[in-house]
Amino acid sequence: MMTDIIQKVKNLSIGFRSKKGDEILILKNISTNIKKGETVGIVGESGSGKSTLALAMMGYVKHGLYTIGGECQFNSSNLLKMKSKDLEKIRGRKIAMIPQNAGQALTPNLKIGYQIDEALQLHSDLDEIEREKKISELLNKVRLPSPETIALRYPHELSGGQQQRVAVAMALAGTPDLLLLDEPTTGLDVTTQAHVLELLNFIAKDTGTSMVYVSHDLGAIAQVSDRIIVMYSGEIVLEGPSRDILKKPIHPYTHGLLKSIPKLSLAGLPESMPGSQPQPGTIQGGCSFFDRCNFSDDNCKNNSPKLEFLKDLNTSVRCFNYEQLVNENEVSQTVNKIKNKSLDKEILNLSEVSISYAKQKLLDQIFNRISDENPTVKDINIDIKKGETIALVGESGSGKSTILKSIAGLLRTKDGLIKFDESRNLSSDLKERDPNDLRIIQLIFQNPDESLNPNHTVEEIIAQPLKLYFGLKGEKLKKNIIDLLQKVRLGEFYMSRYPRQLSGGEKQRVAVARAFAAKPDIILCDEVTSALDVSVQAAVLNLLQQLKEDFGTTYIFVSHDLAVVRAISDRVAVLYQGRLCEVGPSNDVYKFPSHPYTEVLLGAVLEPDPDIKPKLVAEDIVEERPPEKGCSFQGRCSRIVGDICKKEIPPWQLTDSGNAIRCHIPIKELQKQQF
Amino acid sequence: MKVDNIYKEEKKSAFAKLSEIIITMASRPSGLIGLSILVFHIILAFISPYIAPHDFKAIDPTLMLQAPSAEYWFGTDDLGRDVFTRTILGGRTALTITFFGSLIALLWGGLLGIFCGLVGGKIDDVVMRIVDAFLSIPWILAMLLIVSLLGTSTEVLIPALGFFYGKGIVRVARAATHDVIAKDFIVSARARGHSNFSIIWNEIIPNVRDAILVEGAMRWSWMLLGFSSLSFLGFGVSPPTPDWGLMISNARGLMSFAYWAVIAPIVGLSSLIIGINLTADAFAKALGIDRSTKAPV
Ligand SMILES: Nc1ncnc2c1ncn2[C@@H]1O[C@H](COP(=O)(O)OP(=O)(O)OP(=O)(O)O)[C@@H](O)[C@H]1O
Ligand code: SF4
Ligand code: SF4
Ligand SMILES: [Mg+2]
Question: Against a cut of 0.90, is the pTM above it?
Answer without folding.
Answer: no
